[in-house]
């Protein structure tokens, strides 16, 4: 589905990604795991078409990243991306206008599930509320690939649980979720596949259960060992 081959990205002298080979299959939840600065966001930005690689290739369903992939991939960046004058309701209307695959009913349900108020203004939301809104808006698209960059950042424990449940509910045989996080202990249980990125390089990649068996430890413990 999404495939990178020898993908590299440099920012002046800094190499954010180094010869990254990743092959993402449909119907699974992937965790792209690594500490700050390991290249997770750079990988997602290239997949979403917001950034271009320095060398190597990235394809979605065998086509280069472009108009087709953009219509099939939903991407939630770490930054807020709503106009502050909007209300939660108008964010939904705006997304529904913008994306053919946006499901307004699902959005309303998610907003309710996240205990948000449709009439709240974006400018009045706390960091955690804003994070919930981003997730609700992104997960209301029936996209083939949904990429969530650090969905648990700045979120309290109870809400994290809700977000994790929402991600699991969204996953089905026809879509794929790629979730970046450094809060590995919180998301290990929902991951089918894991990718560890260290200084722009893939250092572990595979089925989560197979990785646990091979290393005879949990993903969390392996993460601590690799990134110690
Ligand atoms: N626009 C940019 N200009 C210069 N350097 C950049 C730029 N974007 C990313 N980098 C550098 O590339 C490296 C990878 O950054 P990236 O944001 O992909 O990491 P990350 O794993 O997503 O980290 P975080 O968890 O902190 O978001 C870092 O060293 C970062 O400083």
UniProtKB/TrEMBL annotation:
ABC transporter domain: residues covered: 2-224
Record InterPro entries: AAA+_ATPase, ABC_transporter-like_ATP-bd, ABC_Transporter_VariousFunc, P-loop_NTPase
Gene Ontology molecular function: any one: ATP binding
Keywords: ATP-binding, Nucleotide-binding, Transport
Record has Protein biosynthesis as a keyword: no
Pfam families noted in UniProt: ABC_tran
Entry-linked SMART domains: AAA (SM00382)
Gene3D superfamilies: P-loop containing nucleotide triphosphate hydrolases
Lineage top rank: taxon: Bacteria
Official protein name in the record: ABC-2 type transport system ATP-binding protein
Record organism: Natranaerovirga hydrolytica
Species classification: Bacteria, Bacillati, Bacillota, Clostridia, Lachnospirales
């Amino acid at each position: 589905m999404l495939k990178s081959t020898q993908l590299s990205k440099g920012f002046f002298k800094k190499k954010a990604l180094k010869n990254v080979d990743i092959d993402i299959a449909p119907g699974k939840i992937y965790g792209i795991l690594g500490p700050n600065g390991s290249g997770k966001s750079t990988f997602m930005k290239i997949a979403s078409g917001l950034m271009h690689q320095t060398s190597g290739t990235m394809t979605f369903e065998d086509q280069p990243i472009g108009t087709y992939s953009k219509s099939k991939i939903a991407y939630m960046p770490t930054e807020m991306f709503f106009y502050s004058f909007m209300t939660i309701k108008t964010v939904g209307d705006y997304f529904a206008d913008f994306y053919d695959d946006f499901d307004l009913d699902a959005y309303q349900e998610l907003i309710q599930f996240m205990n948000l108020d449709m009439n709240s203004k974006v400018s009045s939301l706390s960091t955690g509320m804003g994070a919930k809104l981003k997730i609700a808006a992104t997960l209301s698209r029936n996209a083939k690939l949904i990429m969530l960059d650090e969905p648990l950042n700045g979120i309290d424990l109870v809400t994290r649980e809700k977000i994790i449940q929402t991600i699991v509910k969204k996953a089905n045989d026809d879509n794929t979720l790629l979730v970046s996080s450094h809060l590995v202990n919180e998301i290990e249980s929902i991951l089918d596949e894991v990718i560890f990125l260290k200084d722009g390089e893939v250092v572990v990649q595979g089925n989560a259960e197979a990785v646990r068996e091979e290393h005879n430890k949990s993903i969390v413990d392996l993460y601590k060992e690799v990134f110690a």
